[in-house]
Design goal:
Shape: globular
Distance between the termini: 67 Å
CATH class of the largest domain: Alpha Beta
Structural class: alpha/beta
Keywords: Cell membrane, Lipoprotein, Membrane, Palmitate, Signal
Number of domains: 2
Oligomer: single chain
GO cellular component, one term: periplasmic space
Family: Belongs to the bacterial solute-binding protein 1 family.
CATH architecture of the largest domain: 3-Layer(aba) Sandwich
Radius of gyration: 24 Å
Helix content: 40-55%
Largest sheet: 4 strands, mixed
CATH topology of the largest domain: D-Maltodextrin-Binding Protein, domain 2
Strand order of the largest sheet: 9-10-8-11
Subcellular location: Periplasm
Protein name: Extracellular solute-binding protein
CATH superfamily of the largest domain: Periplasmic binding protein-like II
Length: about 425
């Protein structure tokens, strides 16, 4: 092609208004998950083909190293435009200056589940295409054999009924343990899965009005009652402790070693394939309400993004029901809207997992919405493991409170007034 021809082509393109798409970088936590990667890459391809202004480029990381990679990039000034962020982590990243508020049409998320909306300091910083929920796995045949009432969202088991169910399972001699809690997974599972039991006893990890103190919230009468109950699960043989074999957690309920299992909806499909009468029950109420954890992975925009218009446009594009349904069918999580749920295999009305949508909508409570949560969650996890292993309840909770208070003081209250 001659120079004259090249100039003619360039002139023709300019005349038609054609231009190259501006690159918008994105990081994602799902490397290694083929199904998840296929769906997110399809969303990226669809967005890039749908308009001529922006071209999203995606880089995926293993979930285990993702958060550390983001923090390191933030310190080095190398963040991408679009960030994937775990819901309870978002306030820390927003407070630390890693993220900026979203600039999207919020009418698009009016019907989204509460746990999918990442709000910090009164502003929306992130939004999720799915949520997750925990339920008490059981068999209908077990309830019948033990003569137990089937609890509902409207009438959950009380704390007394729950313990009576465990006692009945224990007395039957049919199970290795009445209950599996997944104690081998000493990461974010502990606060996500077990804080709801503390809340149901009337306690809290920190004071949720001020977020500036844990004194009396974690180690008050309610917190101590929770801690004593928690320890009894292990000292009295209701559940395996922290030395539980991971294989036992994966297969134990399916193989009949446990009467009940406290587990997430992400394990539901695999369980249904092998347990034909599995049912998913709501959390028990120990006197102050029944709760499960809310908030999962969400999309946000970094504070240093030079093309926030493109980043926000991509996030708006990703909010379509067809994508929410695709993620739900692909990786088993809860679609963010009722309309997307109706498009899925399992979460529509009458679907095998529709109960999880209701649990997320009715029972879900966010973990403490504070930048300090990233430290507080680790302190809670250690305290729960120590108590399960026989540590003094009051001393352990007091020590945890001291650590939380010191961290809040060291960070000037994390921005809470």
């Amino acid at each position: 092609m001659t120079r004259t021809t090249l100039l003619a082509c360039a002139t023709a393109l300019a005349g038609t208004g054609a231009h190259a798409q501006t690159e918008v970088s994105m990081w994602y936590h799902g490397a290694g998950n083929e199904v998840e990667s296929r769906i997110i890459n399809q969303i990226v391809d669809d967005f890039n083909a749908s308009q001529s202004d922006w071209a999203v480029t995606i880089e995926s990381f293993p979930q285990s190293s993702y958060n550390a990679s983001v923090v390191a990039a933030a310190l080095a000034g190398n963040l991408p435009c679009i960030l994937d962020v775990d819901g309870p982590i978002m306030p820390n990243w927003a407070w630390s200056g890693y993220m900026q508020p979203l600039d999207i049409d919020e009418s698009l998320i009016e019907d989204f589940l509460p746990g999918t909306k990442g709000i910090w300091d009164g502003e929306l910083y992130s939004i999720g295409l799915w949520d997750a929920a925990v339920a008490l796995y059981a068999r209908e045949s077990t309830l019948e054999a033990l003569g137990l009432r089937r609890p509902t969202l409207e009438e959950p088991w009380t704390g007394e009924e729950f313990m009576a169910a465990l006692d009945a399972a224990k007395a039957s001699g049919d199970f290795e343990y009445p209950l599996d809690l997944g104690m081998n997974d000493q990461g974010e599972w502990y606060p996500y899965a077990f804080l709801p039991f503390l809340w149901s006893h009337g306690g809290s990890l920190v004071d949720r009005e001020s977020y500036t103190s844990a004194e009396g919230a974690l180690n008050g009468e309610a917190g101590i009652a929770f801690g004593q109950w928690w320890q009894s699960l292990f000292t009295e043989g209701y559940a395996p402790g922290t030395s539980q074999d991971p294989a036992s957690q994966q297969r134990g309920f399916i193989e009949g070693d446990f009467a009940f299992q406290w587990n997430g909806n992400w394990r539901a499909v695999a369980t249904m394939e092998e347990v034909d009468d599995v049912i998913f029950l709501p959390a028990p109420d120990f006197g102050a309400g029944n709760y499960i954890g809310g908030g999962s992975w969400q999309f946000g925009v970094s504070a240093t993004c030079e093309t926030p218009e493109g980043a926000n446009a991509f996030i708006e594009h990703a909010l379509q029901d067809e994508y929410l349904a695709a993620f739900s069918d692909g990786i088993g999580l809860i679609p963010s809207t009722p309309s997307a749920a109706e498009m899925t295999e399992n979460y529509g009305e009458g679907g095998a997992l529709a109960v999880f949508f209701d649990l997320s909508n009715e029972q879900a409570r966010l973990r403490p919405v504070t930048p300090g949560y990233v430290v507080q969650s680790e302190i809670f996890t250690k305290a729960m493991a120590d108590i399960a292993n026989g540590a003094d309840v009051v001393d352990t909770l007091d020590a945890a409170v001291d650590e939380i208070e010191a961290d809040i003081a060291n960070n000037q209250g994390y921005g809470h007034e």
